[in-house]
Write a sequence for this structure.
């Protein structure tokens, strides 16, 4: 684990404006990692749940930190974690309709972290015979081709009915982005960890009619950009809470890859990244549950400040970031800053450009 403090060197922004709601100040620090972080903390998470259309869902229960938790009467959830991972701790949430999904929580220690969770509930289901070639639309001109006689169960060829379940996400839709795994760390085949700037994302599950998981070789067709030398194919490993680079080969414009497990895939550019942390406050008063909307290049996501005004998230280095600060009464301000590069010195304090910003009434 490599950890770095972002020293205060200069004010990046000093903006004096009159806002209808409140003022806030933020300070940040960063930390870099050489493997998926295993920092152990104790903290609480307060969770709400929405579907991919932004509609509120009622949480019924959840499995978290080795326990089963029941939601409140209004369908929200408060879970308490002792000796849990600071980053990407799994939570299995079940809504009022019995639909379950695994999500991942990150937060600050000894605090109450506000988590606005999202899940996908609407999948496309296809059924066909294994000796048929089938092409499934993933949205736009992107398609997934499943060749005939190309299925295995436990290493043995399978023939019969095949059931495929898919979905294609819209990366310009904030609700779709929120329903994806809240993890942006990708591990390359060389073992390097970095930030994934996602372009296309989709889900695929292939099973027999008896719900047995099947493996197959698949072809990704269309504007996947996997032939440009920048975009790579990635698969989200729920057990490791990280996106793993997935091997493929280009044949006649098709990206051919092996499908071994149900889950999310994405095409993304790998960028060096680090965890950024900070806090928002007015004087000595923390600003709790304040929405921070981060966007860079072609990706975006939202996080909320904790009960103590803290926040933490993973960002690409050397990248201009736009942060839209929002409160319950609407947008406060857009802040632009550039993440600074980190020189890898183990346990060393380094001087980099500050990304402090202040909003004063």
């Amino acid at each position: 684990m490599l950890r770095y403090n972002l020293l205060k060197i200069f004010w990046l922004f000093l903006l004096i404006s009159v806002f209808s709601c409140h003022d806030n100040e933020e300070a940040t620090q960063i930390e870099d990692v050489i493997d998926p972080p295993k920092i152990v903390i104790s903290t609480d998470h307060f969770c709400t749940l929405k579907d991919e259309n932004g509609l509120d869902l009622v949480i019924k229960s959840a499995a978290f930190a080795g326990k089963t938790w029941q939601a409140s009467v209004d369908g929200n959830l408060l879970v308490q974690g002792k000796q849990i991972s600071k980053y990407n701790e799994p939570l299995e949430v079940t809504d009022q309709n019995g639909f379950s999904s695994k999500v991942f929580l990150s937060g600050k220690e000894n605090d109450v972290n506000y988590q606005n969770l999202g899940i996908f509930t609407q999948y496309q289901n296809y059924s066909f015979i294994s000796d048929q070639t089938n092409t499934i639309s993933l949205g736009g001109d992107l398609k997934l081709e499943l060749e005939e006689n190309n299925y295995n169960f436990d290493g043995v060829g399978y023939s019969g009915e095949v059931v495929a379940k898919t979905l294609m996400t819209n990366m310009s839709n904030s609700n779709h982005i929120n329903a994806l795994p809240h993890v942006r760390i990708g591990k390359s085949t060389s073992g390097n960890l970095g930030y994934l700037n996602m372009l296309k994302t989709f889900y695929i599950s292939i099973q027999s009619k008896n719900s047995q998981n099947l493996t197959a070789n698949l072809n990704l067709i269309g504007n996947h950009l996997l032939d440009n030398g920048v975009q790579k194919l990635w698969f989200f490993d729920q057990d490791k809470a990280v996106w793993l680079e997935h091997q493929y080969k280009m044949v006649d414009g098709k990206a051919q890859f092996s499908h071994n497990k149900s889950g999310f895939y994405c095409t993304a550019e790998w960028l060096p990244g680090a965890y950024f942390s900070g806090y928002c406050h007015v004087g000595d008063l923390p600003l709790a549950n304040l929405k921070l909307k981060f966007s860079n290049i072609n990706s975006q996501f939202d996080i909320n400040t904790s009960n103590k005004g803290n926040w933490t998230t993973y960002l690409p280095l050397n990248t201009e970031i736009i942060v839209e600060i929002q409160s319950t009464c609407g947008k406060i301000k857009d802040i632009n800053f550039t993440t600074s590069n980190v020189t890898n010195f183990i346990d060393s304090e380094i001087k980099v450009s500050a990304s402090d910003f202040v909003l004063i009434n």
